[in-house]
Specification:
Blueprint lengths: L2 E10 L4 H18 L2 E7 L2 E8 L1 H12 L4 E12 L10 E4 L7 H5 L2 H4 L2 H17 L1
Bound molecules: flavin mononucleotide.
Flavin mononucleotide (FMN) binds next to helix 1, strand 3 and helix 2.
């Protein structure tokens, strides 16, 4: 079955545990309703999110997310059809950013603006490998 997937990055605004928990509760509730699964990598300096599901739902979700004032500078790096889900077991897997994404110094140095779609996709494929193995 074909699904649609999108990956964006953004800069957290007002990042703390309460805010993050609020986002995750809201995201999981809405994603269960919409048939969306995915993963959110988060750190004080960056969000990276992978969303997969029916194309219309993924696009509507991204449109809502772009207007959310809990983050800034939403940049979509990937929006494409895919053969299968990579995070099918998770309404939204949460990952406190691990070493396989950019360092804080790399981000401060402009890594997000230089990012290729392959590079951001690979961060999540690695996360999916780990999550699906566990
Ligand atoms: C980093 C981040 C990730 C989010 N992830 C999702 C998500 O996966 N699904 C979702 O429906 N909303 C997500 N949201 C919340 C949306 O921006 C929005 O608040 C929510 O969908 C409710 O929209 P509504 O009030 O217009 O119904 C996220 C917000 C942020 C800041």
């Amino acid at each position: 079955m074909t699904v649609f997937r999108a990956i964006y990055t953004s800069t957290p605004f007002g990042f703390d545990e309460n805010t993050l928990n609020g986002i995750l509760v809201q995201a999981r509730r809405a994603n269960e309703r919409d048939g969306i699964t995915g993963a959110l990598i988060c750190r004080a300096d960056i969000y990276l999110q992978w969303l997969e599901g029916p194309e219309v739902k993924v696009r509507e979700t991204i449109a809502r997310i772009k207007h959310d004032d809990r983050h800034l500078e939403v940049q979509v790096h990937v929006a494409e059809p895919a053969d299968e889900r990579m995070f099918g077991d998770w309404a939204m897997l949460h990952d406190p950013a691990q070493t396989w994404i950019w360092s804080q110094a790399e981000i401060a140095g402009g890594a997000v603006d230089r990012a290729t779609s392959q590079e951001v996709t690979d961060f999540f494929l690695r996360l999916a490998d780990n999550a699906n193995a566990g």
